[in-house]
Design a protein that fits this description.
By secondary structure, this protein is α+β, with helices and mostly antiparallel strands. It contains two helices and ten strands.
């Protein structure tokens, strides 16, 4: 009996010792590190994708007053008219006079229209600017189709230069299919010019004589 008890005791003690041994942490740490690395990579990728996705979303839906870029023109214009108002703004630091040729015009929905803005550089030096735009009400941007525009292209003006800039657009007839816009009578197109950096000076051509050498 004593022998059997001793063997049983040794067996029980050995099992308890095996269970009390610490589980190796190496494999668990590797798994945790892998999961953390994946999450970080996913967050970084999402941050880079956020801006282009937002731009695509705005262009597709007209969100935040973003107008659409037309790929074709309507086959005909409707009898319903809508007033389009033109707003102009210049950000601080840009010595320009910027104003629409007409503050408001009535257009038929589906009619292709060309409107003009006038820009005058009031500085005695060359200046550079870039325009951004939106429409109001903001949701109407989904139906305001631009065919040609001066926005997002850097504009350079000589001292005192005055120039006309055109925008070609139409209001999409699909707006008449949405009852939400049955009472919409006015759309405002607003542009704001912001200063652009002066272009870097061109390097002196190798074949062009350096006049400064004569003064040395």
């Amino acid at each position: 009996m004593t022998k059997v008890t001793d063997e049983t005791t040794r067996t029980t003690t050995g099992a308890a010792s095996a269970e009390s041994r610490p589980v190796p942490r190496v494999s668990r740490d590797v798994k945790v590190a892998s999961i953390c690395g994946f999450v970080v990579a996913l967050m970084v990728g999402a941050s880079y994708a956020a801006v282009p996705f937002y731009n695509w979303f705005c262009r597709t839906t007209g969100f935040n007053g973003t107008t659409q870029v037309a790929t074709s023109t309507p086959s005909h214009a409707t009898e319903r008219t809508i007033a389009v108002r033109f707003d102009s703004n210049v950000s601080g630091g840009l010595p320009w006079k910027f104003e629409p040729e007409k503050n408001e015009i009535n257009v038929r929905i589906g009619e292709v229209v060309t409107a003009y803005y006038t820009v005058t550089n009031q500085a005695a030096r060359p200046t550079y600017g870039v325009a951004a735009y939106n429409v109001a009400p903001l949701t109407a941007g989904a139906f305001f189709q631009k065919i040609n525009c001066f926005c997002f292209n850097e504009q350079s003006f000589a001292p005192g230069e005055k120039r006309e800039l055109a925008v070609v657009f139409y209001v999409d007839p699909k707006i008449m299919e949405d009852s939400e816009y049955d009472g919409l009578n006015t759309i405002t197109l607003s542009y704001t010019f912001y200063p652009a950096k002066d272009p870097a000076p061109k390097p002196l051509a190798a074949t062009e004589p350096d006049k400064r050498k004569g003064n040395l």
